[in-house]
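Intended use. Records like the one below are meant for learning the mapping from a protein sequence to its folded structure. Do not use them to infer anything beyond what is encoded.
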Amino acid sequence: MKKHLLVVGFLLTVVLVFAQTTYPSYNINLLSHIDPETGNAGDGRNYSGCWGWYQASKNKEYAIVGTATKTYFIDITNPYNPQIKDSVMGRSTPCTWRELKTYQNYCYIASDVCNPNSFQIVDMQYLPDSVHVVYDDTTYFEKAHTLWVDGNKLYAAGFSPKGSGAINMAVYSLTNPAVPTLIRRLSDDYPSITYVHDMFVRNDTVYASAALQGLQVFRLTSTGTFTSIGSLTGYFDAGYNHSSYITPNGKTLVFCDETSGKSIKVANVSNLGNISINAFTKPNNNPEFVAHNPYVYSNKWVFVSCYQDGLLLYDISTPSNPILRGFFDTYPQGGANVSNNYFGTSYRGNWGAYPYFPSGVILACDMQNGIFLLESDGLLGTAIGVNELKHETLQAKIYPNPAKEKIQITLIENKAKNYSVTITNIIGQLVFEEDCLNDCSFPVTFKTIDVSRFDAGTYIVTIKADNKQIQKKIIISR
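Structure written out for the chain above:
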C-alpha cells in the first residue's frame, strides 16, 4: 500500500525541530524531532504508543508510531534525518489510544475506546518502499487496550469483541503470523479478574497489570490454560496498576501505577509466591506526577515514561536503591521543570518509548509534541554511548547555553538540604548570588535565573550543595 505523499509528505519527513524549543535533559541528548500528525483526539493528543523494528535483511531500523489517525512507519537508520516511508489509517479517527507490537516482519495494531474500530495486521517486508495491510477487521476483536508478543504468541489485554464489553485478556498463536488463532482467554479460567490493562510476558509467564486488582501473575500451561502463580495486591502506595517490565535475570520487576502522585515501584519477583517491593521512587513529590510505562533495558537500567516529566532513566543495579541518572523532558510546557506546575492536567506529555534498537537510538513519543529520537550520553554501553557514567562531585546541567533571557539549572541526586548559586563574569566579578535555596533532596531540582540584564559574554556559574560544588561555563548572547 504505497502512499504517494508528494510535496506534503516530503515536507513532513524533513521537518526537524531543534531551535524553537528547549527540551530540559540530563545525560540523554536529542538527535532529531518530527511532528507529522495533524489529527487531534483532544488536548492536542496526537500521539500514543510506539515500538521499533529492525529489518536485518537490509540493516535498517524503523520507528513505528501510533497517532490520532494512523500508524506511521519511519526509517530512522539515519537518526538525524528520519524518513516517513508509509502509514496505515485507523478505522476510527481521531482516537487517542493506539498500541502496536511486532513479530518477524509483521506489525500488529490495536486501538481502544473509539468506535467503530478494528484490529490490523501489517506486512513490513517491503520496506523501505511500503507496507501492506493483510488484515483490517473485527473477527478477532474490535478494540484492545494493548498488545504483547512473547515467542510466537500474541497477547491482547482489555480487548472487546465487536458489539461486546471488555474481556480481561486473550492469547493467540502466531504459527501463521498473518492469521493468528485463539489459544485461550484468561476469562475462561479467571473470570474474577475483571480487567487487564497491560501485561509483560516472558516464556509463557504473564505479569498482568490488573488495574485496581494489582499485579497478577499467570502461567500459560502446556495444555493451553492459565494458572495463577503469584500476585501483589494491597501494597503500600497502590494506585491503578498500569504496566510492568522485568529484568533479563528475572529477579526485578519495575511497575507503574498510573495514578497522580504515586511512586515508581521496583519489586523483587525472585519468588513469585512472595512478591515484595524493594523500593519506591519518583523524581519529585508533586501530587500531580504520573508514571506511565517502564522499559527495562538490562539488569541495570530502566527507562520510565512519565507524562509531563518526560522520559526518565534509572540505575536499578541495586534494586533497593534506584538512582535517577538521566532524563529527557519531551513536554517542557508543564511539569517539574516549569516551576513544578502541572497546571492541573496530568494526561499530557510522554506516552512511551522504545530503547531497543541495535544502534542504541532511543525512540520516545509525546502525546502533544511528537516523535523524538534520542541517545544516551555514554550510559548504556551501546553503539552511540560506549562509556559508563562519569561521576562528578555534583551533578548539574544548565540550559539553554548559549542563553539570552533565562537559564535553568538542573540538579540531580544531590540529597542536600539547601544549595546556593553564584555567577561571575570572565574577570571574576560577582553578578549574581543566591543562598539557602529550596530543599534539593529530591532526585531532580530546578532553578530558573533571569539573565536578561547580563551583558553578552562568558560567565562562570558555581553551584554548591552542602560540601559539594560544581562550576559550569555559560555564554550570554544578544
